[in-house]
Design brief:
Blueprint (H helix, E strand, L loop, with lengths): L1 H4 L1 H6 L3 H4 L11 E6 L18 E6 L20 E4 H10 L1 H7 L8 H10 L10 E6 L11 H18 L3 E5 L13 H9 L5 E6 L9 E5 L6 E5 L6 E8 L3 E7 L5 E4 L8 E7 L2 E7 L8 E10 L9 E11 L4 E5 L11 E2 L18 E7 L4 E2 L7 E5 L2 E7 L2 E4 L3 E4 L5 E4 L2 H21 L8 H11 L21 H4 L3
Parallel strand pairs: 1-4, 1-5, 2-4, 5-6, 6-18, 18-22
Antiparallel strand pairs: 2-3, 7-16, 8-15, 8-17, 9-14, 9-16, 10-11, 10-15, 12-13, 13-14, 18-19, 20-21, 23-24
Length: 492
């Protein structure tokens, strides 16, 4: 029973106090939107006691519309197919084999099924009577996450549906990537900030699993002897991002494992430029960016691909050396792709674990959730770290992550039946998403606080957070304001 019910996680998150006791919250009347890889809607975790679906809809962005068969996207959108509650119930009545012909939604990775189960599963979930909306995000490019526009449309649909149905909405995003300056300035991050202000909405995002992946390093040009990067064997390609202040001017020399050198002269650039260089078996495709209307940072992007008929880039130690031209702050930040798309041995020699939170968890108005181990009451080292600005004894208002939730050995449902235990901030986030639905039920649906959403809900979550063992200060870059505690967050 402990395996099925995530007892340790719920106890650590103070959830039992408001679900098994007065006010007996269930999430009823609240929509939890899971934007992910789809769902196995046949599982009992997503049906009620009568066998009817708890899903109010599945928008499968990967499906092809067919107007003659009545398979169309949501009104106002062009891609995919919206399967309604009625269509899903028809599929359930037909059984799995025939039903999947009626609603052919398959969760190939199982990630979306797991996330939805943690947030709102009938047996193991937090909000066991919440309405579930699933957006199966469009097919990603090879080795990448879904495109930004697909995610934006999914968020837009979920938020607008909540307005249309006059229901509060919790949007759960349990994935991210490392591309960007991590300062909350990108189009996607600002889109999420704006979406958080529409209707009665809260957006919950996992902080990512890059904390111990060696994919980030940072420093100052004037203090640096250079940055060293270890590239493992059989790496078919690798991209390196350098983010810097635009007012800082310096050149950078790239040194290959064999000692070949190429100078990238960035000091004289006035507009964005590209360059192509070759070192050994590796071709460097270099982009020298300029500030954008929504970002003051400058990007230098280096794509490393095999040269000629080679299959792999040069393995060994690559080095990036700086030559100052005109330095003001000299601060720089390097990022590699996610650990999931590079070989285990590829990473920086002196990594910086701070600022490893993934995008879009850097959105300021989202609730960003890190992970800790509920059994040991300690920080989970894979959890993406953010940033905290401290000035002497004071702390600035901006901090990420906002708080942490259990993210180690979480029980999740598996497509086609059964359960398994998994770890990651992907599964810490839906614990908070389900709990946010409980808070919205108490506040909005039951009329105790009609404004309990958005930044007010975030403030309540932060207020209820508790210290985590081994973390002397709050907030900190690992766990934010501490361990999430639902009963402490509700003003009962």
């Amino acid at each position: 029973m402990d395996f099925l019910n995530n007892d340790a996680s719920k106890e650590a998150s103070c959830i039992w106090q408001v679900t098994r006791k007065n006010p007996y919250l269930t999430g009823e009347g609240v929509i939890i939107a899971v934007l992910d890889s789809g769902i196995d809607y046949f599982l009992p975790e997503f049906t009620d006691s009568d066998g009817a679906t708890r899903l109010i809809g599945i928008w499968d962005q990967t499906a092809a519309p067919d107007e003659r068969q009545g398979l169309m996207p949501p009104k106002g959108y062009r891609e995919g197919v919206l399967y309604t509650r009625e269509m899903i119930d028809e599929a359930l009545a037909l059984g799995r084999k025939d039903g999947q012909r009626r609603v052919p939604v398959i969760d190939l990775s199982g990630h979306g099924t797991a996330v939805a189960g943690v947030a709102a599963g009938t047996d193991i979930g937090v909000a066991q009577k919440a309405d579930i909306l699933v957006v199966k995000l469009g097919n990603p490019l090879p080795g990448s996450f879904p495109r930004t526009t697909q995610l934006m449309r999914g968020i837009n649909y979920a938020v607008n549906l909540g307005v249309e149905l006059n229901q509060p909405v919790v949007v759960n995003i349990s994935f991210g990537n490392t591309y960007g300056d991590h300062m909350g300035n990108s189009l996607l991050e600002r889109f999420i900030d704006n979406a958080s202000e529409i209707g009665k909405t809260s957006v919950i995002i996992g902080s990512g699993n890059e904390g111990a992946s060696r994919g980030h390093t940072a420093g100052k040009v004037q203090d640096s002897d250079g940055v060293e990067l270890s590239v493992a064997s059989y790496e078919t390609s690798l991209s390196v991002q350098l983010w810097k202040n635009y007012q800082d001017v310096y050149d950078m020399t790239v040194v290959s494992p064999s000692g070949e050198r190429v100078l990238l002269e960035t000091g004289s650039l006035k507009t964005a430029e590209t360059a192509r260089r070759t070192l050994g078996q590796t071709e460097l495709l270099c982009y020298f960016g300029e500030p954008l209307p929504y970002s003051a940072s400058q990007e230098i992007y280096i794509d490393m691909i095999p040269a000629g008929d080679r299959s792999y880039i040069d393995e060994g130690i690559w080095r990036f050396e700086f030559k100052a031209v005109n330095i003001v702050t000299g601060e720089y930040r390097f990022y590699l792709p996610s650990y999931a798309v590079r070989n285990a041995g590829t990473g920086f020699f002196l990594p910086t674990p701070e600022m490893t939170i993934t995008i879009p968890a850097t959105s300021q108005r989202a609730v960003t959730v890190g992970a800790y181990d509920a059994l040991t009451q300690s920080y989970a080292d894979f959890s993406g770290r953010g940033y905290v600005y401290r000035y002497n004894d004071g702390i600035a208002a901006v901090t990420k992550p906002d708080l942490s939730a259990p993210g180690v050995d979480i029980a999740v449902p598996v497509p086609n039946g059964g359960y398994e235990r998994v770890s990651g901030t992907s599964f810490a986030a839906p614990i908070v998403s389900g709990s946010a639905a409980l808070m919205m039920e108490w506040g909005i649906v039951r009329g105790n606080d009609p404004f309990l959403f958005g930044q007010k809900l975030k403030a309540y979550l932060i207020k209820g957070a508790r210290p985590i063992r081994g973390i002397p200060y709050r907030p900190d870059s690992k766990t934010g304001w501490g361990a999430f505690c639902l009963s402490g967050s509700l003003p009962l």
